[in-house]
Amino acid sequence: MDRDVVETVSLRWLRRLVIAVFLVVTVFPFYYMLVLSVRPIEQLLLDPGKLVVGFGELTVGTYAEVLKATDDGGQGFLTFIRNSGVVAVAATVLTLVVAIPGAYAVARLRFFGRRQVDFLFLAVYLFPSIVIAIPLFVVFSLAELRGSLFGLVLVYISQTLPVSVYMLRNYFETIPVSLEESAAIDGAGRLGIIRRVSLPLALPSIMAVALYDFMIAWNEFLFALLFLIDKPDRWTVSLGLSLLADGVEVPKTVLMAGSVVLTLPIVILFFASERLLTEGLTSGAEKG
């Protein structure tokens, strides 16, 4: 057999092996968490390492307990999901409303200090979140925003806006200027160019930034704990899950069910937007 053919076949199988290993490492923890969440606690104690569960052993009682209201003896995760959804969607939408025109301005307009903008945006992340947590706590307490979901949304916007502008600005700079110039020649104004040319071409990047912002707001714990600890009816999913983890009387199967509830929306959102995240909408936009 030709040496080049052997090398090609070997590399092909090596690539498949590496992909398989990474797939197992990535999927197995979530699979085991899912298995634990649908097993009765009695069966789990008898055989904690069992990876394949028969249909007769499956139970959804753990999810019923997690989602049921606290007044009915459950953990109240439906309320936590609603709160997290409101906060995450509001933070994502408001961040994009500010980040898109800001990123376009940095990418296309010329102004004093434009070269330093990237550093100023990213400098926010040089400081740990705990450093700004206390000042924010004091300011929001004085403004009577502590304990409100709106105040939490403002905190998340301050956390996600800088990197959102940075990511979108880099993408706007990849859009050929000639496309916008052609639209301007046809009589389109600046807002028309942004709406009809730049935004459709930047859709993959916008979706990626939106997913990033949503994940940050959905999973964040520190600021949610700091601002909502004394308002149980406004807790987010991450706070509710920490309550399950700290509860000695809570079965681990219920804890795993809560973990699945926390993780599943992000997984579904990622696969639903995968096409837009990976598709190159700018392909073939400019010829010659």
Question: How would you concisely characterize the structure shown here?
Answer:
With 288 residues, this protein is an all-alpha fold.
Question: In angstroms, what is the radius of gyration?
Answer: 24 Å
**Largest sheet, strands/sense/barrel:** none
The tally of helices reads: 14
Oligomer: single chain
Describe the global form.
Answer: globular
Q: In angstroms, what separates the terminal alpha carbons? A: 43 Å
Strand content: under 5%
**Uncertain residue segments:** 280-288
Name the helix and strand elements from N-terminus to C-terminus, one letter apiece: HHHHHHHHHHHHHH
Total strand count, please?
0
Q: Mean pLDDT, as a whole number?
A: 81
Secondary-structure class: mainly alpha
Helix content: over 70%
Describe the 3D structure.
The chain starts with a helix and ends in a 10-residue tail after the last helix. The protein is mostly helical and 288 residues long. It contains 14 helices and no strands. 71% of the residues lie in helices and 0% in strands.
